Amino acid sequence: MQHPIIIQGGMGVAVSNWRLARAVSCLGELGVVSGTLLAVILARRLQAGDLEGDLRRALAHFPLPSVAERVLADHFVPGGRAPGVPFSLTPLPSLQPGQALTDLTVAANFIEVFLAKEGHAGAVGINLLEKAQLATLPSLYGAMLADVDYVLMGAGIPRSIPGALDRLAAGDAAELKLDVAGAVSGEEFITRFDPRSFFAGAPPRLRRPQFLAIVSSATLALTLAKKSNGRVDGFIIERDVAGGHNAPPRGPLQLSLAGEPVYGARDLPDLTKFRELGLPFWLAGAYARPEKLAEARQLGAAGIQVGTAFAFCDESGIEPALKREAIRASRAGTARVFTDPVASPTGFPFKVVSMPGTLSEADLYAGRERICDLGGLRQPYRKTDGTLGYRCPAEPAADYVRKGGEAADTVGRKCLCNALAATVGFGQSRGGGVEPALVTAGNEVADLDRIVPTGAAHYRAEEVVRYLRGEETAAAVAG
């Protein structure tokens, strides 16, 4: 098949929203929505009133009207909740979620893909984190009900996803083995989704999307290509300068004087081995320039994945004030990104943009009351009685230790669920204030100015695509 040359990264929590993905797909490239925490985002969008009616329009196309009606009844607030009123919480993900959470998760992913695909014939993908396993199967199924074209997954080893896509497409039940801390030898915990149960009858047969694994090494790519339970269709090779979660450096962790993980020659991907696999691959991490796109193609890549340049465009979900600050800092030469080795509860290094009024500020982080009320990155663990419990190193330290965790693992951890929801305007109201945001981006946030038109303080997704294609833009004319 004809694959895209430019893949727009599936960033953050609703940063890569349906508006951004649709804008990119309409231009003939691959627009990607983020599937992370979408159930929470849908619930909060509905509580905010769905003022333009997009969500309700998409729900009107959901194949099970009864599910759509329940989702609206549970979450929709006509006119939107009053200022300062907290968002109602959604159920926490678990091994056996209730029907309400399953309905919400499937519907949320359906809506995001449906709206991204609406009104054009371009391809649309969805990005999911392998580490966030509890919501994976209903998320995939919702996206597939909306005929998603690609599934992208990283932050782990997604060996079981290709087979899950095969089974869901056929209308069969799919299972994923959970990574459970403390599980004894031979013990398995399985999360399961059955389309027949969801439809209470025969489900539709669906088109199986292409699966692209996000990797950092040829070794992992070879493992996935040879040992996955189904077809892997390609790879996105992310370098350590890419935004969001980064793969840890190979070998013992070493930190720079600034406290960042040190990457070396062993962390550079061996493109010769990728070419030998015979599958298409895309390069990511500081490739958002026309000359770098040309270089990637010369190296045998199908193209590039671009995140940061799209993250701060008009169509992305980041709050406008945060976008303006990123562009201002880029122009002033003060934009900084810190690869934080402990911020993410997943244990993966996580890139944090230094920005006033966000959790990048130590005082603001220290003053925030720790709370875990969204649970998107909770780690399942085995209790002494053999049942499952859930813990997160970003929750209150005493709670984490009570659940068998190590106190040292809580130091510096940030609640990405609440912070990233705040980054896109859905921060929870608490005690007269709102949860602080946290902005993640790649190193290229320091050079956004190359895309912004002369005299402007913002730019559109179209200008990113035209710039990458080497077409004339206002910024290029000025330069």
Alpha plus pi helix count: 18
Write down the CATH topology.
TIM Barrel
Fraction of residues in helix = 25-40%
Proportion of residues in β-strands: 5-15%
Assigned CATH architecture: Alpha-Beta Barrel
Mean pLDDT: 94
Report what the structure shows.
The protein is an alpha/beta fold and 479 residues long. It has one domain: TIM Barrel (Alpha-Beta Barrel). It contains 18 helices and 16 strands. The strands form five sheets. An eight-stranded parallel β-sheet has the order 1-10-9-8-7-4-3-2. Strand 3, helix 6 and strand 4 form a beta-alpha-beta unit. It is globular. The C terminus is likely disordered.
Topology of helices and strands:
Layout (H helix, E strand, L loop, with lengths): L5 E3 L9 H8 L5 E4 L3 H10 L6 H6 L5 H11 L23 H19 L6 E6 L6 H10 L4 E5 L6 H10 L3 E4 L12 E4 L1 H5 L10 E6 L2 H10 L6 E5 L32 H7 L3 E4 L5 H9 L4 E4 L1 H4 L8 H13 L4 E4 L9 E4 L8 H6 L11 E4 L5 E4 L5 H6 L13 H8 L5 E2 L2 E2 L26 H8 L5 H5 L1
Parallel strand pairs: 1-10, 2-3, 3-4, 4-7, 7-8, 8-9, 9-10
Antiparallel strand pairs: 5-6, 11-12, 13-14, 15-16
